[in-house]
C-alpha cells in the first residue's frame, strides 16, 4: 500500500523544450509555463523526515500536492506521516522507509514508488526532489563498498532518478550546496587516498558530482525530447544536521531555521524553472558552477563511473531535437 512501507511509461505532458545551448547557465526553453498550482501534482521528496526536506514536504502538502515523503528511520517516517497529514489537513501524504546508503534498498524504493504510481496515480510523478544527504566526519563504507557520503549524495540519487525517469513528467530537483568543490579528484572519490578535513572534501566533491550528472542528464533529456527539466538548488544555510556536522555549533546557531527556507518548494512551483533546464540556483538566481562541472569529458567520465557503481543507466528515446 501507499502508506508506510519498509524495504521492499509516463505521459509526455508538459511543454516541448526548444533549446539554445549555454554551457555555463544551462539551456533556455521556449514553451508553455508549467502550472504553479500544485493540486493534482505528485511530488516525491527524499530525506523528508526532518530539516529542509520535511519543511518542503509540508509546504507542498499545504498547497494540495500529493506528497511522497521518505526517510530511513521507521519511527521518524511514521511520525512525519502523522504530523503532515494532521497539520496540513491533506490526507494525500504517503511515506516510504528505505536507507539510501544501500543501493539494493534504493532499487527497492524505486520499485515500490513505481508500483504505487502505476496503481494509484496514472503512472505519473510530476516532480522528484533528491533532497536526502549526509555529512560524515569520518570515512564510512557502505555494504556496496562505497564511501557513504558519495553513496547517499551522488550514487543513490542517480539510481533513483534513472529508475523513475520514464514516469517523471515535469521536474527533477537535485539539492546541492554552495560548498561544492572546484573539481573532482577521480582518484579519491571514495577516500582512497585521504578522507580530507573532517569530511569536507568528501561532501564538497559529492555536491560537485551531483551538479555534473545533473547537467549531463539535462542534455540527455533535451536530446531525447523528454518533458522533464533538471535543476540544482542550493537550499540556503539552514540549521540542519548536515550544517551542524560539517560546520559546528556556531554556524548552526546563526543559520536560518529550516522553516525560514523555502527554495526547494519554490523550485517545484515557479513557472520560470519550466522554461530552462540544466541550471544551478542560489537564492533563486542562476549561479555559475565551477568550470570543471561543465567539462563534457569529465561529465562523461563521472557518468560512466556511476553507471558502473549502480548497475543502472537512463533508458531514453534516441530521438534528438534540432538545436535552435
From TrEMBL:
GO terms for molecular function: oxidoreductase activity. Keywords: Oxidoreductase. InterPro entries: NAD(P)-bd_dom_sf, SDR_fam. It comes from the Eukaryota. The keyword Hydrolase does not apply. Pfam families: adh_short (PF00106). Belongs to the short-chain dehydrogenases/reductases (SDR) family. This is Uncharacterized protein.
Amino acid at each position: 500500500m501507499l502508506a508506510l512501507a519498509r524495504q521492499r511509461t509516463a505521459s509526455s505532458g508538459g511543454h516541448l523544450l526548444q533549446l539554445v545551448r549555454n554551457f555555463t547557465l544551462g539551456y533556455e526553453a521556449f514553451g508553455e509555463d508549467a502550472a504553479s498550482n500544485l493540486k493534482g501534482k505528485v511530488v516525491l521528496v527524499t530525506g523528508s523526515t526532518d530539516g529542509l526536506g520535511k519543511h518542503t514536504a509540508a509546504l507542498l502538502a499545504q498547497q494540495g500536492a500529493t506528497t511522497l515523503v521518505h526517510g530511513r528511520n521507521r519511527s521518524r517516517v511514521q511520525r512525519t506521516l502523522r504530523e503532515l497529514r494532521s497539520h496540513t489537513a491533506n490526507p494525500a501524504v504517503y511515506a516510504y522507509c528505505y536507507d539510501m546508503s544501500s543501493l539494493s534498498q534504493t532499487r527497492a524504493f524505486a520499485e515500490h514508488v513505481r508500483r504505487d504510481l502505476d496503481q494509484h496515480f496514472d503512472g505519473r510523478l510530476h516532480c522528484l526532489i533528491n533532497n536526502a544527504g549526509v555529512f560524515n566526519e569520518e570515512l564510512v563504507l557502505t555494504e556496496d563498498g562505497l564511501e557513504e557520503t558519495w553513496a547517499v549524495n551522488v550514487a543513490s540519487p542517480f539510481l533513483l532518478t534513472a529508475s523513475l525517469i520514464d514516469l517523471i513528467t515535469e521536474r527533477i530537483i537535485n539539492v546541492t550546496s554552495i560548498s561544492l568543490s572546484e573539481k573532482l579528484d577521480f582518484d579519491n572519490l571514495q577516500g582512497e587516498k585521504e578522507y580530507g578535513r573532517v569530511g569536507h572534501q568528501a561532501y564538497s566533491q559529492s555536491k560537485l558530482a551531483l551538479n555534473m550528472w545533473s547537467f549531463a542528464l539535462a542534455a540527455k533529456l533535451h536530446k531525447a525530447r523528454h518533458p522533464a527539466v533538471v535543476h540544482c538548488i542550493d537550499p540556503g544555510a539552514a540549521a540542519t544536521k548536515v550544517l551542524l556536522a560539517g560546520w559546528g555549533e556556531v554556524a548552526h546557531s546563526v543559520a536560518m531555521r529550516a522553516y525560514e527556507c523555502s527554495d526547494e518548494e519554490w523550485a517545484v512551483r515557479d513557472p520560470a524553472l519550466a522554461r530552462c533546464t540544466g541550471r544551478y540556483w542560489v537564492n533563486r538566481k542562476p549561479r555559475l558552477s565551477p568550470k570543471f562541472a561543465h567539462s563534457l569529458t569529465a561529465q562523461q567520465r563521472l557518468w560512466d563511473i556511476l553507471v558502473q557503481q549502480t548497475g543502472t543507466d537512463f533508458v531514453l528515446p534516441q530521438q534528438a531535437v534540432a538545436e535552435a
